[in-house]
Write a structure and sequence with these properties.
The complex is a heterodimer. By secondary structure, chain A is of the alpha/beta class. Chain A contains 12 helices and 10 strands. Chain B folds into 2 domains: 149 residues, no CATH class; 83 residues, no CATH class. The chains are: A alpha/beta, B mainly alpha.
Chain lengths: 290, 259
């Protein structure tokens, strides 16, 4: 069942000429983990803001078409009601720290205080969320004393704790090391399996390939491709349009030219790449001694 | 780098355990008493017999006395000196020097004023030393202070040190590109120009993002807010607040009655 529906969505920020989103149509089912990829300026962040209700409630500008989440349209709702359904975490972790709290534990509880969760319920919820993202040991630290990657986990946790139906994440791992990234992708995957709908704008295609259910490729504010990771990430259209593609895909594409890749399907993960390489192929033109 | 801008000293004492509102009431009661009481020696008695012992009760005597020695007493002493020398009141001349006349009345006036200043600054110092800012704000929010107001106070306390750190980073970055920040005064003032742009405009962008972030966490939600930490408000707190208010009223009434 679709929980998020975008119909003919076109949006123009105030003071800009060209629309940032153009005629976007998107249906996302409950519990789906959708990754949004695209070059800089393709409209990924704007799409996130639109889903989270900040377009049009915070950023004004001209929005046409309909945005519907859990059966409610943005135009009919107010931002403070909308955020109960859709949680948003974005890139810069430093600016997501409220500044009103002195420890990570209190910081995570900030959202729960705002929406009036009773105190007895608050503590177990915060503890559970901290354990989920693996930052229980940071609970008593000041949020400002943490590293960028740790702050990003705090930002993610402080949204997760509010248990939104739809989780919108705009590059939530940009300051993390590979281990941190894998852990956070694991957490997001778990949330999706528990029924939370996840929309993730991200550049790290190799992680998307391993974790997401579906990939939407945005280009100049329009949906270029929409489908399973295996189809979208190996499409020849991506490279032409200036997207970053997985090194497994690009290596296999080279290998195909050399006759080292026999399968029709190009790989998007390490496992698929290892499996598909056939090293016993005809030698390349160079090796034939020309 | 300072983690936060706060005087709070984390210790366990009866003064720390008092409800923040009680302490705030105490501060204002002391100030009003020192200005409103009809008895000349009230502020002096408050300093010696109430504020000083309270700093020991709160186990912050070291911090308090250091602040007093470095800041409060020098400032009050300067005020005393200025008012004694330049206050053109009184007939009982003690001595005359050049164009200055020091009279008994001026000295008495300066002495009580200096004591009032000490009471005012000292009681606020004690409040800040023994009360965690977020505890004070969440208690006041619970009693009806708008949460936006509390947010502005608390986040400013935390964000100012962050901005200082950012200014340091910008200066370091500019210096690594050859900006001179250590020579003559004129050059140093000039060096501020390339600092202000990134700092101010960067901060404006940050404000927008922070607004989005706290909005995403339901800051303007129409639900009644709850609070994670429980702030005790005992019977003793309530009685103490009542007593403080009554003593202030008595002081003002007796002053009116005597005059």
């Amino acid at each position: 069942m679709a929980i998020v529906t975008l119909q003919n969505v076109t949006y123009k920020y105030p003071l800009t000429e060209a629309p940032v989103l153009q005629n976007v149509n998107l249906q996302i089912n409950e519990g789906e983990f959708v990754a949004v990829i695209g070059p800089n300026g393709a409209g990924k962040s704007t799409l996130c803001y639109t889903l989270a209700g900040f377009v049009p409630h915070f950023f004004k500008g001209e929005l046409t078409g309909t945005v519907e989440v859990a059966g409610v349209e943005t135009h009919q709702s107010s931002l403070n009601e909308w955020v109960l359904n859709v949680g948003l975490a974005f890139q810069n972790p430093f600016n997501q720290i409220s500044g009103a709290k002195y420890t990570v534990f209190e910081e995570i509880a900030f959202g729960l205080e705002n929406i009036g969760v009773p105190r007895e319920e608050m503590k177990p919820r915060v503890e559970k969320a901290l354990a989920l993202t693996g930052i229980s040991d940071l609970a008593d630290r000041s949020p400002y004393s943490l590293s960028g990657g740790q702050q990003q986990r705090v930002a993610l946790t402080s949204i997760l704790v509010m248990e939104p139906k739809v989780l919108v994440l705009d590059e939530p791992t940009s300051q993390m090391d590979p281990i941190g990234t894998r852990e956070v992708f694991g957490v997001i995957r778990t949330m999706a399996e528990r029924g939370m709908t996840v929309v993730l704008a991200e550049h790290k295609v190799e992680w998307i390939a391993a974790f997401a259910d579906r990939v939407v490729a945005l280009k100049d504010g329009q949906v270029l491709l929409d489908g399973k990771p295996g189809e979208v990430l190996t499409s020849p259209l991506l490279e032409e349009a200036g997207f970053g593609i997985s090194r497994y895909t690009s290596t296999a594409r080279k290998a195909r030219e050399l006759g080292l890749w026999k399968k029709d399907q190009l790989p998007i993960t390490l496992e698929e790449a290892v499996e598909g390489f056939s090293l016993t192929s005809s030698p390349s033109p160079k090796e034939r001694g020309e | 780098m300072h983690e936060r801008l706060s005087f709070y000293v984390h210790r366990d004492s009866p003064l720390h355990r008092l409800n923040p509102l009680t302490k705030l009431t105490m501060v204002f009661a002391f100030i009003l008493l020192s200005f409103g009481s009809p008895w000349y020696w009230t502020p002096h008695i408050l300093i010696v017999l109430v504020i000083l012992p309270l700093s020991f009760v709160g186990r912050v005597q070291r911090e308090y006395l250091l602040t007093a020695a470095r800041l409060i007493f020098p400032a009050a002493g300067f005020l005393f000196l200025m008012q004694s020398l330049f206050q053109p009141i009184g007939q009982t001349i003690w001595f005359r020097w050049w164009v200055l006349e020091v009279t008994h009345e001026a000295v008495a006036f300066a002495f009580v004023n200096a004591a009032r200043i000490i009471v005012m600054v000292s009681s606020f110092t004690l409040l800040l030393l023994t009360t965690h800012p977020s505890e004070l704000m969440s208690d006041l929010t619970r009693r009806g202070l708008p949460s936006q107001f509390a947010y502005v106070i608390i986040s400013t306390l935390q964000i100012i040190p962050q901005m200082q750190a950012k200014a340091q980073t910008i200066i370091a970055a500019q210096r690594s590109r050859g900006l001179d920040t250590q020579s003559s005064f004129v050059k140093r003032v000039g060096a501020l120009v390339p600092l202000v742009g990134p700092l101010v405009f960067g901060s404006l962008v940050e404000v927008e993002e922070r607004a989005i972030a706290i909005e995403a966490r339901g800051f303007t939600s129409s639900h009644a807010k709850t609070s994670l930490c429980e702030i005790p408000d005992s019977r003793f707190d309530q009685i103490l607040r009542g007593a403080l208010i009554v003593s202030v009223i008595l002081a003002f009434v007796s002053r009116l009655w005597l005059s």
